[in-house]
Amino acid sequence: MSEQRYKGNPFRRVSYIPPVDVILSVAFKQTKNLRIKSSKRRISREEKIANLERERISTLAMVITEKLERIINQFPWIESLHPFYGEICDLMGNIDKIRRILGRLGGIENQIKELERDHIARLKETEHPNDMAEIRNQSNGRMASLLKKAKGDVNYLIRVIKKLKTVPDFNVNYPTVVIAGAPNVGKSSLVIEISTGKPEVGEYPFTTKKIIFGHRDIGMTNIQVVDTPGLLD
Prior knowledge:
By secondary structure, the chain is mainly alpha-helical.
């Protein structure tokens, strides 16, 4: 997670989070395109194949770990969030669950690197091309299986970040009034009456489905007014 503070909604800087299936598709496509490279020095066919299989294992590991690292690093550092965004994050997702997920992704990243080292070491123990291919297939299968275990976690982050990106920018320097309460009690009407906010108003519960900001000048002071979806508890 990034420790850098972000002006405005910090979740908007999170770019595309690829699903696990997309990560694997990209990774395997890159390994499939690898070919035996020519060498200035004369080496045996077996050594050329060993180099290719080593590169295939390393490429798969590199693509997967880079994707995981990007997901982890671009996510805002939870401890550095302004309390407003921290509360919003907890309401729209679950901060503790997000922490655990990011920790698990970091653990998978380390395990992938360990699998890479182990299988490359095994390549050095054989000179038979068929055995080398089998070692690479085993490495591919274990890396893919490990990443697939994170499918639910990654999908959760995708859903949460999509919702968090819709939260308006919050100016920490302005006094703020938050209008919260049960559904269909007139919160949005009050926001329209006292601020520039334009939430949708209806005669049915849960008309407001997202956080909406408005402003009101009182003397020389600009006050933020926040309309929130109805609370059930």
